[in-house]
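Hey,
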Amino acid sequence: MTNKQRIENLETYLLSVLDGTEKGKLPSTLRVFMQGLSWIFAVIVQLRLWLYKHRIIRPSTLGCQVISVGNLTVGGTGKTPVVEVFARNLQEQGRKVAILSRGYKSKELPFLEKMIQRITTGKIETPPRVVSDGQRLLLDSWTAGDEPYMLASNLLNVAVVVDKDRVKAGKYAIKELGCDTLILDDGFQYLKLGHRLDIALVDRTNPFGGGHLLPRGLLREPMRNIKRAGFIFITKCGEQGEPELKEQLRRMNPHAEISECRHAAKFLKDVFGDKTYDMDILKGMKIAAVSAIAVPESFEKALRAFGAEIVYTRRFADHHRFTQQEVINTINLSIKRGAEAILTTEKDAVRFPFVDRRDIPVIYMRVEIEMLSGEDEFMDWISRICFKSPSIKPDQAKAKKKAAVEAAAILQREKEKVKPSAYSQV
């Protein structure tokens, strides 16, 4: 077993301890120990916020519009599609947008190169990684990280820049790429860069992170801190919305606009080619569901909702980077279980290495955000950010979205040019 597998197994075990799945003396003891650590963590979190609030620690300012999109829990809120729709709407209203991401689990600078920099300059200083300059896709998913790569692949005329230091990334986006609007991807807790607006996402399936802060629960900070948000998205809603949860959030934050949305499957696409399929083909189909996301249950539930019969399920740790052998093994096991196709998520698809096997289709599901309530308020909010009035109405926004889909074909061609380098990293 490799070190990566040991870490992923430990991560999976700890998550099962947190949600109470694991029973026995050891898990119970671990939960008590983690609760103590949570109390310490809560004090540190609140102290840090107090220091920034009272300007004892001062955030950096870059002289342009900075908006954060994030959440109060770790993983699984469906943030990437929201960032995508938000960036697209800003760009369509005339802003030059850059998304700043830390590039979770992206490829680090090689050790030898780090040492050469330290010897020659006395420090390690690398420029931000430009995943897309808004016109071309410049990096593969291995180097960029799966979420930045996915955003860059789907957004035309929006830059995507990766660096743990997002102040440095923001300066680069402004100076070198001419951007005037910065979106902090997963930026609700990133206080180092001053931002004017906060968008907070709340996952309807687990809105309060189990009620505990890390490491006992999934909360990054107390839920009451959602009062910092100017706009709240309730994600993964049902058809009728979530009126009770909306009312709870309204009591916590009486000033924010609140929108309910859902992640709607739009089409299926071949992972290793350009072929697309309608969602209707899933009805009655025997499939294998393969994923490496924080909440695989929501993906599998969506497949069943379209009438698919899941005959084989394989779940990996969140952000797992697949090897060729794992893909081959999955294909073989899926065929053995009688599956007619392998289904995965778009986020996972960018981490699939190329395999020259066509025994069974390997397909990902394209998901986009659909607003169930608050669409007019959202568009008005976008217009205020862009200093435009009146705002674009929903029917106009849909027309623009259709045009953007057609334009995205240009970026798709660039994506295919970059793809082979991603497959070479196994």
